[in-house]
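USER: If only I could read backbone structure tokens as easily as an amino acid sequence. It would mean a lot if you studied the pair and described how this chain folds. Here is the record:
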Amino acid sequence: MTPILVVVRGNSASGKTTTAREVRRRYGRGCALIEQDHVRRVVLREHGGNGVAPSFIMTMARAALDAGYHVVLEGILHTAQYGDPLRRLIADHPGPTACFYLDVSFDETLRRHLARAEPIPVTAETMRGWYAERDLLGVPGEQVFPETAAFDEVVTTILHSSGLGRAAAMTPCPATCPRCAEKAR
């Protein structure tokens, strides 16, 4: 089977990271998860702007797809900086691609951020600077989830409409993977 590319985007605190992690967990092994924040902040130690992150992230996604992994790519991924590289990645990928946008209002973004177990130390003003209302890619089939969509509904929809729900995993998790089974407890 040709690998599947899944792109999950949205503003800060929209639920994209939690959603992407759960999609990958439910799928099992054989699916790479590429988190924009981790790559940008931890791997590259970039603070935004015109850094190497967009091309680096697209290269990571291409390498994983070329190796036969499905890919879940998630992040704010603002179209001003990531739109063209993302559209090229999608256009160049010969297999199925599914794009999702978690549409959350700024007020809800702030509420969710403050409800995090460990909120990142930023002000509402800083978050306002990051916020881009309905920053859609404009690619065919892009699906938008409203802030009222339930977490399980979003995850299940992504699995089924992307095709990951029908794709065979290397090993399903957590059923046969003791390490994942332990984490799920």
